[in-house]
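User: I'm preparing a small set of examples for a lab meeting where we compare how different chains pack in three dimensions. I only have the primary sequence for this one, and I'd like the structure in token form so I can line it up with the others. Please keep the answer compact; I'll paste it straight into my notes.
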Amino acid sequence: MCVFTECGGIYVEYKNHYLTNAILRIDFVSLEESLKESLKPEVKNICTKYFPISENRQVEFKQVRVNNGIPQADNLIKLEKNMEWHFLGIRREKEITISSKAVVMNFKEYKTFDDFKNQFFEVFDVLTQHYPDIKINRIGLRYVDQIKLPLEKRKRKSWSSYWGKYINSCLVKNLQFVDDDLAITRGMNSIEMNYGNYMLRFQYGIYNEDYPAPNKKNIFILDTDVYSMGLFSIDDTKILVDIYHQQAEKWFEKSIKQELRKKMEAIENE
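Assistant: Understood. Below is the structure token output for the 270-residue chain.
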């Protein structure tokens, strides 16, 4: 398995990676009425080309009154049941979901960006051809890297010194603040950026799936979510997804050190 990225102007091929979820999502301006109860055969056919397992699920959408920006749970306006169409890979290693409000694709086994993007847009192009009234108001691309390293025989001095070998020191400084390193249950942080045409939310740190128990696992999260909100054409989506990907890769490369690249078995080519 290979992942390609750019590091300081150098094209890098990685034999291994820690990417556990690659998610591409496009939301609609409003619920698409014609997608609430049925999905046209042409769309199903292109989905099953890449996602052979299909599952239909009924979901509820609630509309409530809002007071000063706060939803009022006791003021239900409308309760509506719509269909969602889920298409999965043969090992459930990937999934694309179509509903009246969005199209969402999630890869748990990611190979290359071109393969990931092409599968999504083959489906999305057919969908928008058969449902031309769809209007887009949000585009998002998210990469979640769970850097999971084997437990070492020798005792670590601290989480900050351990992860400081592999992760940019700026991202682990907060771990130096605590007095009792063994008592850390979670240590997540976030940075949000406004690049004008799009936003970036970067979350990083020790998530600890065993919370609230003290963290014992060697797992560090790098979670990069790049998105835009507005009104977009189909052509806009393809251009923006490419830009999002490039920006996410830059943030990933800034976040890691050479010791981690060695574990990923990086091959650098000019």
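A couple of notes for your slides: The helical segments are 41-50, 113-130, 159-163, 234-255, 258-263. Residues 30-134 form one domain.

User: Perfect, thanks.
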